[in-house]
Model the fold of this input.
Amino acid sequence: MTLTKIKREFVRLMEEGRVGEPYAKNFMGCLMSIIIEHEPISQERMMELTGYSQATVSLVLQKLQILMPIRTTRKIGDRKHYYSYDGPPERFVLDLWQKRLDAQAIDIRQIESSIEGMSRKTDRDAASERFYDYLKNLQLYLKLVYDLRNTGIAKFERVLGTDSYESQSMKSLEKGVLAKFLKRLRQTSAESDSNRKLKGKALKNYLHSKNEYYSGLKTNLNPLYSQTVANQMIVVHDVFVEGCTSQEELEKSTLLPRSTISDVLAVSVKIGIIRVTKKQGSRIKLYQPVISFTDLMLGNYDLVARHISEVMPRLSKYTMMVKRTRTKSKEAKKFLEILKNLERAYAFTRDYSNAMKVEMVKRLKEEYDRGFVFI
Done:
């Protein structure tokens, strides 16, 4: 197999293997095609490595140039533009995290705005109170994640230049004080029918609060992410807000098309986040959380670990494939070096993510000990 074919297959698998990662379609494929090249790459070469059309590559490049440190150059006597990653290849992991952190600050401000608006209402009904408590919990989780990432990114940047990472043992979440605390939090939210008891103005105000918040999620969506991610967040979080809800109620709360809601629910049921039930004597399907709100939020760390467990063997596989070609070219040597550095970066990411999960539970327990009420 030629080096180009190996690169093409590597790029394809890295794009297809973005399960659990929220990035827009073709984003990772185009980014990887730039990262693994030993010299600045043209759009034509990107098309060759990714298999994407010129229109797709041009569109993704526009997003990459806005979000990532992509350098554009030209060669004397050549009208083409050439693209390269401004920094070592493994640096892209850190740059992606930084962009995710920037967008999270927007999420926190949006939640704070919704909470402030609801707190001014002195006559909140039971359903509105439930939504208010949910937002307060979400605000706490996001603030803690933001703080942990903010302090952790600098440390991770230092680690990229070394060969080790001081990871915290995940065993502390399996036994001891933290394990007992997690068990307490992992009580799924109780079913509520408070929203179904609302009528008239009260129902209208309640739906308006949710419509406004969910609309903000879509408007302020991180440009790294696909619109599908926003739809998933909105539908899944509304199921958790209600504890038990129907597709018709989800349509009123989220203002999303029925087909979009159906797609999200189908995926959520398949991966075990939500279950389908029916009340006796009724044909209407009801949707309930299977896991607790805590597990929903901490699940992001598990998704990272799962994603890395799939990526690491691929990096090793393609390293061996390049070595078997016995190619001594500068391109082959550079590709091997890039694969090695990516493998190290992903290993650090796995350890970092595990450490952040342990630290997150510690912070949650501190908040609990201070009197914070978890849903």
Notes: Residues 330-369 form the longest helix (40 residues). Residues 88-187+296-375 form one domain. The mean pLDDT is 84. The beta strands are 41-42, 70-73, 82-85, 245-246, 274-278, 285-289.
